Amino acid sequence: MKKxxxxxxxxxxxxxxxxxxxxxKNTGMKEFRExxxxxxxxxxxxxxxxxxxxxxxxxxxxxxxxxxxxxxxSVAIVPILRAxxxxxxxxxxxxxxxxxxxxGMYRNEETLQPQEYYCKLPDGIExxxxxxxxxxxxxxxxxxxxxxxxxxxxxKDIKFMxxxxxxxxxxxxxxxxxxxxxxxxxxxxxxxxNGYILPGLGDAGDRLFGTK
Length: 212
Ligand code: PRP
Ligand code: URA
Description:
Strand content: 25-35%
Bound molecules: 1-O-pyrophosphono-5-O-phosphono-alpha-D-ribofuranose, uracil
Number of domains: 1
CATH topology: Rossmann fold
């Protein structure tokens, strides 16, 4: 795959361990959902090394000292429906008060083209750091369109997080949105003829919500 400055692939050993269980077809819905959440939390820590901090005065039992806290109300989470919903709690573990917007996308199963069917974002999102989340980055069509939708509504500081990325999808997002850091936990081999990631984990939405 071509090298992009805005693509970050995590090689944390704990993420590797959890992804091995996530991929297993015998992993049930409850454990799958918990793993998606846990991996997202680790990814959130790793991807927020540049989080905006503001100075605050703190009184310890001994003296007053200047410390640094995350700026209030500075983060929003936007899951791509539906599988992205599985990642929201994972980001909330790190930023419990982050507001949540939703973008609904589904892939036409024949053309693999994404269709937007819903978009509701928190007021003032254009001033926040936005985490766009979706566990699967396959052809990249859904992520590119969701990023277009966020930018059209004024968002400027966006991070995209996916658990599994296919080379084709990662390249498509990274080149269409060079200003957006793209974080993936693992980079898989390829897509199959139906646009599924190989080796992948199957259909993330179905495994999260038990629909198949
Ligand atoms: C999946 C996944 C992404 C999209 C990725 O959603 O959650 O949104 O496919 O594919 P792409 O990179 O080729 O666009 P899906 O359309 O299956 O909908 P769902 O989340 O409702 O299951
Ligand atoms: N969406 C999924 O849920 N899985 C894939 O492998 C590709 C797209």
